[in-house]
Amino acid sequence: MYGLIGSFKANAGQGQQLADLLLRAAAALRANADCHLYVVSRAQDDPDLIWVTEAWTDSAAHQASLEDPEVRAQVAEGRALIAGMGQRFELDTLGGNGLPLS
Amino acid sequence: MYGLIGSFKANAGQGQQLADLLLRAAAALRANADCHLYVVSRAQDDPDLIWVTEAWTDSAAHQASLEDPEVRAQVAEGRALIAGMGQRFELDTLGGNGLPLS
User: Fold this and answer.
1) Sign of CA dihedral B70, B76, A3, A82
2) pLDDT greater than 90 at residue A65
3) Out of A5, A22, A38, closest to residue B98 by CB
4) A44 versus A30: which is more confidently predicted?
5) Do residue A40 and residue B96 have CB atoms under 8 angstroms apart?
6) Span A46-70, mean pLDDT?
7) Cα(A3)–Cα(A53) distance, rounded to whole angstroms?
8) Residues of chain B positioned with their CB less than 8 A from the CB of A96
9) Labelling A73: which of A20, B55, B59, B73 has CA 20 to 30 A away?
10) Chain A: closest CA distance from residue B32 (Å)
11) Does the complex come out with an ipTM higher than 0.90?
12) What residues of A are in contact with residue B22 (Cβ under 8 Å)?
């Protein structure tokens, strides 16, 4: 599987709004059989730093999802809340507990 | 939920061995109802850099798991494969797609 771990720094005080938007995106992705994981977290030491951990069948499936009109609208909405991109790690996700495929 | 994202740098050439050990740990954690996520990934640009994304009911449940004799044995086995600790992020995991609780 293609894995992504990334963080987004929201504008000051807008971390919860950004997290809510990403949780709505996660809910919409349940209909996408290629999205095996899309988990939203907040840094314990910074309420405006939001982390997303994703696992997809492959990077093509992830890329294709970004072309979806609903996803594009959410990305545009998210951009208005984001002060800057944090760290980003591209991974081969191997398995584990909690993944539907494993 | 209490979330953890962390990476471990294996000794040169031992990344797969470390990943296999962590996947066995993940399988054992399926019996732990407080462990909602334990996903093992490998950095695309470094086969010896292994990432683990975890979500637990709370930090006390995570801490308690580390006292389990089987887990302690796995940690000891893992230490022999690890050259150094990578980054580590403590999180409040809010939900998402793929989490049993969400």
Assistant:
1) positive
2) yes
3) A38
4) A44
5) yes
6) 95
7) 7
8) 22-23, 26, 37-40, 52-53
9) B55
10) 10
11) yes
12) 96
* Chain A neighbors of B99, CB-CB under 8 A: 39, 98
**How confident is the prediction for chain A on average, in pLDDT?**
93
Question: How many Å apart are CA A31 and CA A14, to the nearest integer?
Answer: 27
Average pLDDT of the segment spanning B75-82: 93
Structure tokens belonging to residue A11: 């504008």
Nearest residue of A to residue B28, measured between CA atoms: A97
Residue A100's pLDDT is 61
- In the structure encoding, which two tokens stand for residue A13, read together? 């005080």
Residues 6+ apart with CB under 8 A from A93: A1, A2, A3, A36, A37, A55, A99, B39, B40, B41
State the pTM of this model. Answer: 0.94
pLDDT top residue among B95 and B98? B95
- In chain A, the residue whose alpha carbon lies closest to the alpha carbon of B30 is A97
